[in-house]
Automatic annotation (TrEMBL):
Protein name, UniProt field: PASTA domain-containing protein
BP terms from Gene Ontology: cell wall organization; peptidoglycan biosynthetic process; proteolysis; regulation of cell shape
Biased composition annotated in UniProt, kind: Low complexity: 754-768
Keyword terms: Carboxypeptidase, Cell shape, Cell wall biogenesis/degradation, Glycosyltransferase, Hydrolase, Multifunctional enzyme, Peptidoglycan synthesis, Protease, Transferase
Amino acid sequence: MRVREKGDRGVVQSVVLFLGVSVLSGALAAGLAMPLAGLAGFTTEKTSETLQDLPQQFDEVPLKQKSTIRAADGTVIATLADKNRVPVKLAQIAPIMQKAIVAIEDDRYFEHGALDLKGTLRALAVNQTEGAVQQGGSSITQQFIKMSLIEKANTPAEVEAATAATTQRKVAELRYAIAAEKEFSKNEILEKYLNLANFGDGAWGIQSAAQHYFRVDAKDLSLAQSAMLAGMVKSPTAYDPTNNMKRSKDRRDVVIRRMLQLKVISVNQANLALKQPVINPALVRKNLLGCANSAYPFFCDYIVAQLKENPAFGKTPKDRATYLKTAGLTIRTSLDPKIQAAAQKSIDEHTKPNDQAIAAITIVEPGTGLVKAMVQSRKYGNGKNRTSYNYNVEKSYAGGFGGFQNGSTMKSFTIAAAIAKGYSINYKIPSPSPLHFEGSKFSTCNGSITVPDDYAPTNSTQNVADPTMIQAAQKSTNTYFLQLSQKVGLCPIASLLKSMGMYNAQDGEPLEQVASMTLGVGYITPLQLASAYAAFAARGKYCTPLLTTSVRDAAGKQVKIPGTDCKQVLPEAAADGVNEVLHQVMEPGGTGNKLKFGNSDLAGKTGTIQEAKAVWYAGYSSKLASAAVVGDADPPYKRLSGQTLDGRDINDASGSQTAGPLWKTAMQNALKGYPTTHFTAPDDKTKNGDNEDLPYVNGMNPDDAANKLRQAGFQAEISTQQVNSDEAAGTVAYTDPRRRDGAPAGSTVTIFVSNGSRGNNNQGNENGNNDEDDQPDGGGAPGCQPWERNYPNC
């Protein structure tokens, strides 16, 4: 700060004038634009007491500056502001503008101190002649103090106190003005004044005003433009050209003539300026503040909601909201306008704003968690076919819809948990339809659960009777993955889901461990699913979704925010196996084969929830991962069939045919410009499994066999169904997996008990060389299998 010398004439003059006028209360009243009656009873003694209580210094208030939210390439997404202001230095303000404001507001500004004696006496004379307050004697410094006190106010009551027409407030304001002139030079005060001033129509400060009305910087303002703006300070609303062009011109012309009178400009300059139009209405910029006016309102809203949770921005939500709008922050985000445009193009091509069904897409970058795009089919706002819900995010955010059940996209996590546990991507399981699970148990993190007697799931597509993991994924075979999840256990799947950011988006709770978990459970958002699938693309590295990449304050200093948060949640080799399995889903024979494009390796999975109330397609390359959903978002939720999408009725909703095209168009355009990429091929262990030898238990007592299996490091379960076998009735007929195939350590081995119907009673030898009976036997009627509900009497 610049401090004046004690002998500074202006300050001495101000102090003397302040004391003198304070004692001569009548003059003070006139000088401060107050009626003489305003000081009735305000005695010399009270004046003295008031002077002793007045502040001895002026504490400058930080300017409330607009904050900007920017995309990854620096383009502005939105402006957040309490007051739309961009402070500039005096050197960045046109000299003619400086002269205009001084001419009309305080033409002796550079000659007097905090109080203009001539102006005060002139105001007194006019007011006494008119019999009322017609003129005020406020200097630019006094006006600056008043503006500052209003700027400091945070509530209506504080604003009222800062503008109250009381003598005490006026005296305090003058004392502040004297203190300010000790602290700052005239030029510094003029700079602060021009940055604080209200120029109407939402423009605060000279730079914002110049941009708002004329689309020029403050340094490039002309005489006519400067005069118009200078004239507005007296009454920003009354002289706003967007409200009343004539009144604004009249006021502008008053300023020009005053400048001519003071010989600041020539007659020729004045005449030319008077002929200029006040504004060109076509150039006036709208004050599009807030996320509602953003090109990406849903993304913007979600950013703001996350920032409001950051304690670095204030102690309370209100403090943080105020900070965001007043601190002049530059908020850089992950949004990529090109990828966002690709996703929006897909929405535009495959949906209509008045569709009954809604669609949403999120695109994430693997290995970083950067959220590159977030789009949906319903527009932002109130009214018909508009919404304030963001269908891509969780419900804990005020505008979040909270997701949809995600159906068979969950099978990918069962695949991942199984491969991580040692199951081969070619692991086979007989997978009939329907498959009866009555009485079966599924292990959980807290013990086990028993399947209801009436649980008999079916497959929606045909497959081979004994599919591999790849074949089951290609056809999304429900009964295969139910059995696989039973063998792996629900706890490893649940743990993996938690580590990959998959939780119930409605209430934030972990996804429920139930028998049907692998077929879809809870509510999941496109943001969650895209981020989780991105972990597969990144070879098992999961990154928390990242939308805000940096925040800088008005001085350019970094503000602390959460940064990239990545961790290895799945071994690379296991992720390679998942990528191979899901890659085959998009190859011939897979449910996603029609969605394949380009030369890069792609992987994906369909998802359809019960009664097809929502359908999904989630997939990825090694560069981008995306999840697309089409669902019913209007309770009571109903089937998509019969609802409209892209202006047409949906006949048969499915992940591949309904959500798939949205995913394909978005990703095909988003990946343009990226190099061709390929997944890392799975190693031999992942292809063939990491199986341990199973002990030979055929012909043993089932309980003894179970103990033997447990001692060997496996979990054991005895089936309640007895099967045809050469083994003695009540002994072990065979196990699943078969002994010759082995099984991953710690996995569940199911023991099937013989009913002795074959009558051979051959128990085999102790060394297990008789392996013919170590596999299921159909027996009974043709097509009658041990897993059939009515076996052996099918």
